[in-house]
Amino acid sequence: MIAHIGFEVADLARSARFYDALFFPLGCRRQFEGPGAVAYGRVDPRFWIVARGRVPAPAYGHVALEAVGKAAVQAAHEAGLAAGGRDDGAPGPRHQYGPRYYAGYLLDPDGYRVEIVSGSV
Q: What is the pLDDT of residues 50-78, one digit of tens each?
């Protein structure tokens, strides 16, 4: 089980604005904020963005964020786009992952792939 996940970002303030907007429709808020890190969660900090002065490497994988229903997937996707994210797959069914799988994909400001999913197996 994952305790938390962290992404290294180039500009902490820019990335925090993106993740503030993205997480709001998913019911997550900032749980920690410091000079070099911001962390999000519902109760505990589980998703961290950190600035360490290194160049991010976006092509290594992605993170999937759980949403409660299709409307939350759509709202988070739209919020992420409005906050500087780029579309990497509009919200919709992804039957290749299961009959109830509904997801949308974004690239965050550093190019990391973020999936918002509801109905995962």
A: 887 777 666 656 788 999 999 999 999 99
